[in-house]
Amino acid sequence: MTAVFAGLLTKVGIYAMIRTETLLFPGERINTALMIVALLTMIVGILGALAQGDIKRMLSFTLISHIGYLVFGLSLVSIVGMSATIYYVAHHITIQTTLFLVTGLIERRGGSSNVDRLGSLAKISPALAVLFFIPAMNLAGIPPFSGFIGKLGMIQGGIAEGTWITWTLVVGSVVTSLLTLLAVARIWARAFWRKAEDADSPDRLLMSKTLAHARAANKRLLPMSVVAPTALLVTMSLAFTVFAGPLMSFSRAAAQDMYERTPYLEAVLGEERVDGVREELEDLASQIPDLDTGDGGSDEFAPVRTSLEPEDESAQEADDR
Fold it and tell me: What pTM does this model have?
């Protein structure tokens, strides 16, 4: 249940923020505040993760830290930022759930989730090492995994906006990614790479006399019924990398729909009620500023414009002629 709560339910709040921001606060009304919150969340969360000796606690802090990435993408108020956020939500649900399930397997095989008491896991259970290594590198955003793809989209959006605070966020996101790599590398070095004899009070489950004894313990402690769901999620996480192109296209379409408020409002409130407040909505949408991103006019990097925004008068007159 911890894996489900950590991976899935924490994203309900992000969805609520996305809906609230796109419906009630279009444009750049609160994006500066969101950027500050995103930066603090990333840095404070990952520093908390580095201070932990228990794998579950470390993953809980990295969860907090990576929520900051999602708020970062949301605060950009651009198609590329929102599409990267949507893609990263799906990626992070899978990766975070996988890592908590792997931690459960580590606890079953090694008798503890405290890295100070673990060792030799790569030797006595190579399959468990693979199941940890892939999502751990994905969480850190190492190319070519999906974590890198999602973070790259947010960084592109931040660079395109070109303000001092977005550049600060870009630097902060890169630093956070490197510190995440350091956190998972410490787990790998201690729990998987070093000898169990060098650990503090290692559990007797790690002290197999021969590899034959270790394999027998693996079959008993790690049956296929508990390993298969984790392996399936690892495979799913790799699918986010293999099918990144189509998934990003889908995320981009979803981002455009998020900012196109009219269909959503009509579906929820009804067309008649939307017509009654259309003038107010148009006035609200007209306050969305333009931004010269220097990217050749790419709409994906510029602040979004919706169907509620009044058309340019000169363009309208040209069409009338």
Answer: 0.82
